[in-house]
Amino acid sequence: MKLNSAYLLTVYLLLILTISLCAQDIKRIAEIPLYDNSKIHKNVAVIIYNPVIESKGNKTITQLYNWNNPDDLIDQYIKDVRESSWDIVEYKVAEKIVVDEFPLHLDGFRYTDETFMEAWAARKFHDAGGDYKKIIEDFNLADKVEKRLIDEVWLFGAPGFSWWESTMAGKDSYFCNSDPVQEVDCSRRFILMGFNYERGVDCMLEDLGHRTESIMWHIYGNWEANENTPWNKFTLYDKNAPGKAQVGNIHFAPNSVKDYEWGSRKYVESFCDDWYTYPILPGKKRSVNSEEWGNGDMRKHHIWWFKHLPRATGAADGKLNNWWRYVMNYDEY
């Protein structure tokens, strides 16, 4: 069969087009970062202050006020952190201590059964700050951290116990949503989370969110509404950077105009999807609103936010591409 020149030209052009498309696909594939899926295992000491109120039929305060079962909160939080980190973070409860007393405040005050019930009824609490050093000493926490029996501490208590959402202790500890606990003799930094069993897992994730913000602020050295660092850029939202919204912070979704506004149906342009491929940021924006993060459901928004944290291998400009390693291995950086 004789092939005419027009046919050969068509075949030639199709071949060139195919090679060009393959080259583009290869380039695109090469630009997709490898995810760092290696597990981060963390052992936790859980200390639950849940006093028994003798005058109320020996009910604990969680039973008396029908508050959340701490064990249920622990299980769900571990699952949510695992999901939020794309199965990277694996928490294990190494020790659980249930304490039948009210914790001490910094000024020496301690609730009795009666004074706590009065405070709860009036919603007016003693506000002198919780005595973390007493807790650390009572349960030998610094020594357990030093020996790597535990990596962090989860405190569970009631409103009015005056704990921060998170605080840091140990050598070279720094601001972690609160000033660090001073004069704790431990060569490793460790975090004490302050969880409230009157609230749900959504608030526990918020505590972790503020811890994350503090740690990333420390890692990058500043936190401002600009694009000068990857962390600064990640946290931009439309109100503070019109037309440049990224993922936002734990209080502000890309379209939020006020604190805790996670349910706005207003559409804004956001580059949030770029962060799935960090350190490569393609610069592709699209219109988003609260349908992306749960229509005002606090827990769903926080999981959505955490899922955008970079988790690639390697480093860029001297910083890890997997931010979960900073959030969980904070004693190393």
Number of domains: 2
Gap between N and C termini:
72 Å
Number of strands: 11
With helices defined by DSSP (H or I, 4 residues minimum), what is the helix count? 10
Shape: globular
N-to-C series of helices and strands: HEEEHHEHHHEEEHHEEHEEH
Mean pLDDT: 93
Describe the protein.
It is a single chain. The protein has 333 residues and is an alpha/beta fold. It folds into two domains: 40-199, no CATH class; 230-332, no CATH class. It has ten helices and eleven strands. Strands 4-1-5-7-6 form a five-stranded mixed beta sheet. It has a two-stranded antiparallel ribbon with strand order 2-3. A two-stranded antiparallel ribbon has the order 8-9. Strand 10 and strand 11 form a beta hairpin. It is globular, with a radius of gyration of 25 Å. The relative contact order is 0.12.
Features:
alpha/beta, 333 residues, five-stranded mixed β-sheet, 33% helix, 2 domains, two-stranded antiparallel sheet, single chain
